[in-house]
Fold:
Amino acid sequence: MTMETQTTTLIKIAPSSDSEVQAFYNQALQLREYAEARVIATFEDLMPATIDLSLIAKIKKGIEEKRKEYVQPLQFHVKEINDAFKALMEPIETADKITRQKILAFNAEQDRIRREQEEVNRLRMEAAQKEMELKGELTESVDLVEVSPEAPKRTITDMGTAGMRDNWTYEVIDFALLPNEYKIVDTTMLNIIAKKYHDQKQISGVRFFNKPILAVKAR
Structure:
């Protein structure tokens, strides 16, 4: 992969200087004052409140559209940049992964060999002990195998060091035995069930109920 010429682009980054955004903000300040002062004591009071909610919905939509107008070009270029660097990083990431895997595989193999050597010696000593108990003496000396040394904890070079470091993790082997405080509720799935089935689908330990919210549709 070859490096291409750097390119630049002009992107708006100061929404507070945007006259349209400022107009939305000024309207929002006024509507906030109305909301704080508003008293809803009769059915008639619902009419102006609903008018304001409709205006609020329009302003929220307008501000959100302006936010996207500012953000989307940035997001597009961020994605382009991230994709480019991901491609540039691929060979070095692969080299890192392969080298680490080979070191870990070597260390694991040396550990396996050492454990087998130790097991051979253990069995030979056990056999010698049984012969002593049976005959009162050994007919021949115990020929122990040489046990390979442990892999070094660290390899030190002029360029840097590499070594094994503890990395404790976990594996759930029986979910039913987990204490309750470690069982995480699947809120996404429960919300989907509540919206789709209401209270018609029962799940042990869960109550589905209707909690009405105020919906506003601006014309």
In short: The mean pLDDT is 90. The helical segments are 19-37, 46-135, 187-197.
